[in-house]
Design a protein that fits this description.
Strand content: over 45%
CATH class of the largest domain: Mainly Beta
Largest sheet: 10 strands, mixed
Distance between the termini: 29 Å
Radius of gyration: 27 Å
Structural class: mainly beta
Number of helices: 2
Number of strands: 37
């Protein structure tokens, strides 16, 4: 939701070529089994001519290029050390002999390929096996190799090297692995620690929410070309008599901070912040052209004037603070009106970046849906109505890819214009209607989860690969370091200013610090 200083056309062109990824086996029963066609070829889904209940992939060569082909990026690697064969079924509409090349790319070893012939006769040829113990290097197409290692992309050439046009069907690409849910939650958070059910009609509860109204670009307004003012007026945010929070975007001339805008809305910051857990927000969304509803999280340490936590904790700029977009709608040209998106913004990848995923809901404007994020020390999974549709889990977790070891807070808002495009000239007002906001963790809150501005205990550097330094004006009585499973890794009962974790495995740890009969828990990353 924050800053998108990108060329939108380039961004959505990028998405159109990179949004498909899947895991083996591939049976073309889901949309993510879609191959990317190149060099003038084409891919689509079709129905098995011999079985109307079976979905298959249709592959088309127009014959204009000798190396037309099809690729699919995999979220789970093909492991040739587990099984060194891949099989598939091929259907020819013509009676001719065809040659198939199955190439593996993006691997731990050089690209490899295996060639097989499909006999004459047409129709289905089942279980065509490609044996990678008898592969060749793709770099020259002749050097034999007993291939090993893992690969993340599969490429198919049909009659590669020849300009032969044709349409073909493929089904059941298998490597011996068993499909798993790529968006399965790794840690279940069931302990309710904070909520707002909006049970009192009138103004938003000031003990739970802060109205962020100060523009973040003085003299201009908000980022992304947005054209609204955010206000703290009850016109723009209120709880109705049915127990729903309404964030209302309105068409009206409004002056504030020396700026005149033609639209108003509200942007709420939660006065609660947490590390790791699950957020559920049940809501209906505005879908009018130019509206941009969002449910998202930002690091409590963001340096942003006007944000609730800035005065006490604002030390870090965006995107180093980390941003978790639970739900955004309206900024994706060409998508279905009921499409929603989730994204991650970090120093390595922000704005228009590949760390995002979306799905289509049913009737966003008139039906409530539950938008959720499950944030653990190892992964962040986004869910719609309890079903996961995108997971962020970078292989390397450091400050560039994973600034998610400290508290984040919740934001609710409806922006206008900017990346959401032109606003409907007939627009007068619309709202995001919220039934509840709930946060779950796996245990009662620790001291470090509360709003404790008086704490003077600091640890640095974090992440680290060896030494953690501890700074405090108070006496440190003892410390204890635990892994994410609660196993005690280290304990020191004497005053200390540093600890050495160089011999520990990379990952997330929790450092308990005892000082003057109080305890604080700090999250530490070893890299």
């Amino acid at each position: 939701m924050k800053y998108f200083n990108i060329n939108l056309f380039a961004f959505f062109l990028f998405l159109s070529h990179n949004s498909f990824s899947q895991e083996m086996p591939i049976d073309f029963s889901v949309s993510t089994d879609s191959f990317t066609a190149f060099a003038g070829s084409g891919f689509s889904f079709n129905t098995d001519p011999d079985n109307s209940g079976n979905d298959v992939g249709q592959f088309f060569n127009d014959g204009t290029d000798a190396w037309q082909g099809f690729s699919l990026d995999l979220i789970s690697s093909i492991d040739l050390d587990f099984q060194n064969t891949i099989s598939l079924s091929f259907y020819g509409f013509d009676p001719n002999v065809h040659t198939l090349i199955l190439k593996l790319e993006n691997g731990t070893n050089p690209d490899v390929q295996v060639t097989q012939s499909v006999p004459a006769g047409g129709g289905w040829t089942n279980n065509i096996t490609f044996d990678y113990s008898n592969a060749v290097l793709s770099s020259d197409g002749v050097t034999p190799v007993n291939a090993s290692g893992t690969y993340d992309r599969i490429v198919i050439f049909i009659d590669g090297g020849s300009t032969i046009p044709g349409t073909y069907l493929i089904d059941n690409i298998e490597d011996g692995s068993v499909a798993t849910d790529p968006n399965a939650i790794d840690v279940e958070y069931n302990y309710l620690v904070w909520e707002d059910n909006f049970e009192t009609a009138g103004a938003v509860n000031p003990s739970k929410w802060h109205h962020q109204t100060q523009v973040i670009i003085p003299g201009v307004g908000w980022a992304n070309g947005e054209v609204q003012h955010y206000t703290n007026r009850i016109d723009n945010s209120f709880v109705d008599n049915s127990g729903f929070l309404n964030i209302v975007a309105k068409e009206e001339t409004y002056q504030d901070q020396g700026l005149t805008k033609n639209y108003t809305s509200a942007r709420l910051n939660s006065k609660f912040a947490f590390t790791y857990g699950r957020v559920d927000v049940r809501a209906k969304l505005p879908i009018e052209a130019g509206t941009w509803p969002a449910i998202w999280l930002l690091g409590k340490n963001i340096n942003e004037n006007g944000a609730f936590w800035d005065s006490a904790f604002g030390t870090t700029s965006w995107p180093a603070c980390g941003e978790i977009d639970v739900m955004e709608r309206g900024i994706f040209p060409g998508e279905d009106v009921n499409y929603i998106n989730s994204a991650i913004h970090t120093p390595c990848c922000h704005g228009g970046n590949p760390n995002q995923g979306g799905t289509i809901a049913n009737d966003l404007a008139n039906e409530f849906h539950v938008y959720s994020v499950n944030w653990s020390p190892n992964q962040i999974t986004f869910l719609l109505d309890g079903v996961g549709f995108y997971t962020y889990n970078p292989a390397i977790k450091d400050a560039s890819t994973w600034p998610f070891t400290e508290d984040q807070f919740i934001l609710l808002n409806v922006a206008m214009g900017g990346l959401a495009g032109n606003i409907d000239p007939a627009f007068t007002q619309s709202q995001m209607t919220i039934d509840y906001v709930r946060v779950y963790k796996d245990a009662p809150l620790s001291i470090d989860d509360s709003f404790n501005t008086a704490s003077d205990i600091k640890i640095y550097p974090n992440p680290t690969n060896n030494i953690i330094n501890i700074s405090s004006k108070s006496t440190i009585n003892s410390i204890a370091l635990y892994d994410i499973y609660g196993k005690l890794m280290l304990k020191q009962n004497t005053e200390t200013a540093s600890i050495d974790i160089s011999t520990f495995s990379n990952g997330v740890y929790f450092l308990e610090i005892y000082s003057n009969n109080t305890k604080e828990v700090k999250k530490v990353i070893k890299n």
